[in-house]
Amino acid sequence: MQFLTSLVLAAFVGYAGSWYLGFIEGNFALLLFMATVITGVYWLAERFVFLPRRQQAAEQLEAQAAQRRLDLNKMGIEKIDTDIQDARDKLLMQPWWLDWTAGLFPVIVVVFILRSFLFEPFKIPSGSMIPTLQIGDLILVNKFHYGIRLPVLNTKLTEGTPVQRGDVMVFRYPPKPSVDYIKRVVGVPGDEVAYLNKRLTLNGQPIETQALPDYFDESTMRYFKHFSEKLGSKPHQAIMDNDRPAFVPGVDPFPFSENCQYTVEGVRCKVPAGHYFMMGDNRDNSADSRYWGFVPDANIVGKAFLVWMNFGNLKRIGAFD
Q1: Are 240 and 197 in contact (CB under 8 A)?
Q2: Helix (H, G, I), strand (E, B), or coil: what is residue 225?
Q3: What are residue 193's DSSP bridge partners?
Q4: Is the dihedral of CA 140, 227, 292, 255 positive or negative?
Q5: Which residues are catalytic?
Q6: Residue 118 domain-assigned?
Q7: CATH number, residue 226
């Protein structure tokens, strides 16, 4: 078992190392699931096989010591050294290969349940959601808001709350599902979304906006046009670069691309059933649905709702819309 356990642990380390070095595309959900299953098997084996064996060996040692004391007493020897506590402790001690498997199972299973069904942490790597989210924000994502899904398979088990316009949503990037993206929901199934001359309209109606003082982006050391808009029940802030053109360059082919029309003024799209149109709040610095298309329902990870830490700015901590 020691050799087998060594191979299993080496496989996990090799997988994680190859992922970290970029040799393979890792899947953390799958890795965590496998770790839960494997440590769970060891935990069951420890509880029902290995621990009873060690306890039985300790009981035999105690029985032998008791018999030795009895035999020596019959011989008239009363003062004897029969301290077997150290030997008993060594027999009951969990070996290293069980300590690193069965011993970790309670922690791993709690992390697996929390991450798969309740909340998952993410770190914001880019400025595409400025000013709502800043680079370095550590956020929490509600995994059950849109319905509970099976980990790894992402199969939906419950319906949950329907996706609403204006939600900040984490999803698997359609061109590369191993990568998680975060954007704001602009269009839901059946909507006609148009972003023409840098003005957002939904089903033919311009989205309500209100001008705000220019926004200074510390990551680029520049000022941007700053405004609030109302897609859902609550307004949110967005920024725009007046120096950038309105047309959308470098569009890649994507499913249902026939639903979109691109012109020098921008883009107009009809959102297909079971899909969503996503945009970043940093409108001119966001690779979003304008470039790679719609997000299918199967790619949804959860609803982002809280900045729980930003080590560079503690004032960032709190809920956001």
Answers
A1: no
A2: strand
A3: 202, 269
A4: positive
A5: 128, 183
A6: no
A7: 2.10.109.10
